[in-house]
Amino acid sequence: MSIPVVRVGEQAMHCSTAANILISSSCELCGQEENCDRIIFHCQFALHVWNSLGFQTGNATVKALWTVARPTTVPARHYSGFLLLVCWLLWKQRNDLVFQHVQPSHPRFWAQCRDEARLWSLRLKQEEQYVADAWCSLFISM
Questions:
Q1: Looking at the record's lineage, which domain of life comes first (predicted)?
Q2: How many domains does the chain have?
Q3: Given a cut of 60, is residue 4 above it in pLDDT?
Q4: Do the domain assignments include residue 131?
Q5: Which end of the chain has fewer CB atoms at under 10 Å, N or C?
């Protein structure tokens, strides 16, 4: 078995699992082939997240993220931001599993969503704060 080499600038780094660089492309949670669509929409953890929020993501892909229908529980204003927030935190849950060996947790996920929504709300105009408040309320109710 050869050890993959990654070039960083002029230096070569030998990849190994000890350095937390993955050689396998299998999902650490379910063992299936890992790709962006699976991580964001189709793994068991992500499916539970989207279903809990009222989304129908059966054939959803990351490439067509903006075509995912908005449930009535999510405000229309800044809907794309909401999608990005959920995707970002699903990705972070995956990275916590792969690199920190922290098992995914829905209660921790919802708390992180709420905390991140509060941070993201700082970029909103004062009169749009109701959007982040609605996001936080939705995450708290999970």
A1: Eukaryota
A2: 1
A3: no
A4: yes
A5: N
